[in-house]
mannan endo-1,4-beta-mannosidase (Cicer arietinum), 458 residues
Amino acid sequence: MEALKGFKLCVISLLLFLSSTLTQSLSSTELAFDDSEYEDWESNHIPTSEMEEAEWKMVQRKGNQFVVNEQPFYVNGFNTYWLMVFGADESTRGKVTQVFKHASSVGMTVCRTWAFNDGQWRALQKSPSVYDEDVFKALDFVISEAKKYRIRLILSLVNNWESYGGKAQYVKWGNAAAGLNLTSDDEFFSHPTLRGYYKDHVKTVLNRVNTFTNVTYKEDPTIFAWELMNEPRCTSDSSGDKLQEWIKEMAFYVKSVDPKHLVEIGLEGFYGPSTPQRFQFNPNSYAQQVGTDFIRNHQVLGVDFASVHIYPDSWISQSIADTHIPFVKSWMEAHMEDAEKYLGMPVVFGEFGVSAKDPGYNSTYRDTLINTVYKTILNSTKKGGSGAGSLLWQLFPDGTDYMDDGYAIVLSKAPSASSMISLQSTRLALFNSLCSERCHWGCKKKKVLRKVLYHDEL
Ligand SMILES: *[C@@H]1O[C@H](CO)[C@@H](O)[C@H](O)[C@H]1NC(C)=O
Ligand SMILES: *[C@@H]1O[C@H](CO)[C@@H](O)[C@H](O)[C@H]1NC(C)=O
Ligand SMILES: *[C@@H]1O[C@H](CO)[C@@H](O)[C@H](O)[C@H]1NC(C)=O
Ligand SMILES: *[C@@H]1O[C@H](CO)[C@@H](O)[C@H](O)[C@H]1NC(C)=O
């Protein structure tokens, strides 16, 4: 009975979807980014009805899939780390809206961004537990704008690196404000005072009431997940024990404040001492010594899904080489296999990209990279595997070139990348709409899917 109902839903949504897909794929080939062209789109898509509001539910996890409203939720998304800082300034605020508009015009549904800026210019947290209300309002604005464009956010809570403050800033605070005498930035992970600072930050952010929507962050379905830290590494303890303890404590803490949202760590994905047989997949032999341990770290209670980054140009050689592409494929496949066999959770490739400043770079290489990532995910998706999606590093709106570190993709200037992004969105949206959990991967839709997915014009 339940199964039949599921199957009917499948068929109905297939029909609905095919018609909308056809229109979508036609319009995505035109790729114009004059903002006036978005007006129609906007009036059609900004949710006004109560029904659409009711559908805006929390993303959850069931086994190795994300689900929302009983449907799978595969992710095609992007990173734009500076949204809060841009939102804090009247003159740049419009860029926040613009990047969401552009991203949703190519079907992207998830954005990863920083919910931290510690002690720097336009700091959110000026000193431990002291917040700049204007910057907090800017974060409120980012979340409220994201919802308008049906984009969900992965919010990262602190940086491993010094940009936007990071663990180094927490150590400075410990020395200045608490009179400690800390010399290593990795004390961030182990010193009780700094652990306390971090927890206070978590508590403040998760309990924040959005001044635009009146929705408390921890109740807001616009937030896809909390990320404990951007790219944690703890090189002072290559056994991995120090970081492991921190992850255990903090994942538990986030869940205790907010049991509703998903949690991920923010790791790059290196294999560590618990799995020497997986070292062969690491990009270099240094990777196993940075205090992280992909499988062990992700087995911690409270961690819902795995995160992996993909940067051959930073890990193997800055100079672009054809060997980078097979690395990307095997790196991804190894992690999806782990997520299926040992973790039983979805894996999101939370950052991938290439810098246009790298020696040997050309846009063909970038397209090949994007295509490889997308195809490798689809290969897993088709089998109902753990490959749950990817987030491009990074999407910029027009007129922000001065912020570009080489990795930015401006859709209006990258027609072939835009087409690939649209295509991936369309394909993943098809999976999302066709397959209810109940109808799962075995039902008759499979044949239809195969037809649809292998038609390149789709
Ligand atoms: C701080 O620690 C360093 C070594 O860890 C030591 O040499 C120094 O004397 C300490 N300073 C204070 C003020 O305790
Ligand atoms: C938020 O709450 C305030 C005070 O109760 C109210 O005036 C305002 O209209 C509410 N805004 C929204 C978007 O619900
Ligand atoms: C682009 O770069 C790749 C990798 O370095 C190289 O193999 C390819 O020949 C280049 N293509 C063009 C058109 O320059
Ligand atoms: C898809 O996955 C299968 C088995 O996991 C593998 O043999 C195949 O090479 C993959 N295909 C692509 C295009 O990645």
